[in-house]
Amino acid sequence: MTEPEKKHLFDDPRNVRRLMYALYALCGLSLLLDFVIHRHVDHPWEALWGFYCLYGFVACVLLVLVAKEMRKLLMRGEDYYDE
């Protein structure tokens, strides 16, 4: 007899959609708070509106691109341990 498969929170597409909307709202809120909150900056480009949002996005994209290239160097074959 097989047991019914356990249903997880993010198996329901509605929950995934809700999470994505919440993340979009938080990103928008942090961008809007950039108008209100005064920051003490060290460099002039840090004072630009939305600098940290753009900086974080570019950093994440670069991290993914570098990881894709590193995979080519570090990945081993599927039968590595069988040899």
UniProtKB/TrEMBL annotation:
The keyword Transmembrane helix applies. It comes from the Bacteria. The chain crosses the membrane at residues 21-41, 47-67. This is Uncharacterized protein. Keywords: Membrane, Transmembrane, Transmembrane helix.
